[in-house]
Amino acid sequence: PRLLSQFFFADERVTRVVAEINGLDAELDPQQYLVLLNQLHLSQAHLLAILERIMEECIPTQRHSRDYLVKFPEELLVDNLGNHMLFAAECLLAGTFLEVEEEDGAQLRPRARNLLCSLELVRTVLREQSLSQPGSYPEPVRAVLVQFDRLFAEFE
């Protein structure tokens, strides 16, 4: 029932799906590749939802303002904006085509890199915390969560 335990298992799921995708030849089995991509999307959404709950519990007064979200279309907000932002960041870093002007892309790539590096750090720190003291959030954990929340908001 603890959030850190839930995070640990959700993180394991994401890691397992990524490993399966990396070990698959998409050209030989395109159907399985699509199945795994869908599983990755769902497992990342679940991981981000748990991470959101952890931040609400751990750093509720230190969260970055999300007032700007009123500018986004309602269908994006209902359909897990965080997962869309994570996907966009991954695409920017991979050089995958996104409908972004080159100048905007040049500004967004460093932010995407910072966001994804911060997410990896959060995943590492929370995994370690879940294995050592799953019921507490010491200052180093809080610090990486605050940084991730700020970087995520800046990228949004």
From TrEMBL:
InterPro entries in alphabetical order: LST-2
This protein's GO cellular component annotations are: early endosome membrane
Give the protein's recorded name: LST2 protein
In which organism is this protein found? Ibidorhyncha struthersii
Question: What does UniProt list as this organism's lineage?
Answer: Eukaryota, Metazoa, Chordata, Craniata, Vertebrata
